[in-house]
Amino acid sequence: MTQFPLSRRSALQLASAALVPALSSPAEAGSGSIRALAFDGFTIFDVRAVAAAVVSRFPEKGAALATAWMNKLFALSWLETSAGRYSGFEAVADAALAFSAASLHLSVTEAERRDLVTVFAQLPLWPDARPVLETMRRAGLRLAFLSNLSAPMLQAAMRANHLDDLMEPPLSTDRVHAFKPSPRAYAMGPDAFGLPREAIGFVAFGGWDALGATWFGYRTAWINRLGVPAEPLPPAPALTAPDLSAALRLAGI
C-alpha cells in the first residue's frame, strides 16, 4: 500500500477522524416534546487533544500511532460488547495503545501509556459547548453525559471545565458494564432521567453512535464536527450539523 506523507495538521485531523465512524444525512425533526438531552462526551469535550498529545510525545510516528490507537480502541470496545464482556474504558484504551505501538514497532512504556490514557480525563471544551449548554439549561432542559468514558474520567473533565452546575451526574457505561452501542448503555437515559425515550434527545459525536441511539429509539442529533462521510445503514439521525446547532434544533430552541 502506498503511503503519503502528512502534515502535522492533516495527521491530527486523520487521527481524530478515526474516532468518528460516521452517519447519515441531515433531516429536520419536530422536537417539542424533548425534555432532556443525553450527550456523548466528545460532543462537548474536544477529543482532538488526544491525538495532539500522542503526536507531541512521538513526533515521528505519532500520527500513525494515534490513528491506529483510536481504531483499535473502538474495535476492542465493540468486541467486548458483542461478547458480553466489559473491562472498562481505561483498560481497553491501554490495551489498544499497547497493541498499536507494537504493530508500529514503537516502544511505549507503561508510564507513557498511562499518561496518554489520562488525557481523556483532561479534555478541553469545544468552543460552542458552554454557550449551548447554558442556553439549554435556561430553557429548562435536563442534561447529562451518556458515554463510554469511565465515571472518574467524566467527573474529572466536568470538574475541570466547570460543568457540574449545568449537567446532572454523568452516565458512564461503567453502570451497566456494556459499551455503546449496546441497548443497555442507551437505556441508562430513561432510567436516570425517569422519562420515556421519546422525551430524550441523544447528541452523538460518532456516526455509529448516532445510528445506535436511533436504533434504540432516541431522536438523535449527529454533531459531525470533522465532516466525515455518513454511515451506510439506515435510518438517518433526526438532525445533522457540524456543531451543536443540531442539538439546539432537536430540543426546539
From TrEMBL:
Catalysed reactions listed for this entry: an (S)-2-haloacid + H2O = a (2R)-2-hydroxycarboxylate + a halide anion + H(+)
Which positions make up the signal peptide? 1-29
The record's listing under SUPFAM superfamilies reads:
HAD-like
GO terms of molecular function: (S)-2-haloacid dehalogenase activity
Work out whether the entry's keyword set contains Calcium.
no
Keywords carried by this UniProt record: Hydrolase, Signal
Q: Which PROSITE patterns match?
A: TAT
Give its E.C. classification number.
3.8.1.2
Q: Which Pfam families match?
A: Hydrolase
The family classification in the record reads: Belongs to the HAD-like hydrolase superfamily. S-2-haloalkanoic acid dehalogenase family.
Which PANTHER family does the annotation name?
HALOACID DEHALOGENASE, TYPE II (AFU_ORTHOLOGUE AFUA_2G07750)-RELATED, HYDROLASE, HALOACID DELAHOGENASE-RELATED
Q: Show the NCBIfam families listed in the entry.
A: HAD-SF-IA-v2, HAD_type_II
What does the UniProt function comment say about this protein?
Answer: Catalyzes the hydrolytic dehalogenation of small (S)-2-haloalkanoic acids to yield the corresponding (R)-2-hydroxyalkanoic acids.
Q: What is the name of the protein in this document?
A: (S)-2-haloacid dehalogenase
Q: Organism source for this protein?
A: Novosphingobium sediminis
* Lineage of the species this protein comes from: Bacteria, Pseudomonadati, Pseudomonadota, Alphaproteobacteria, Sphingomonadales
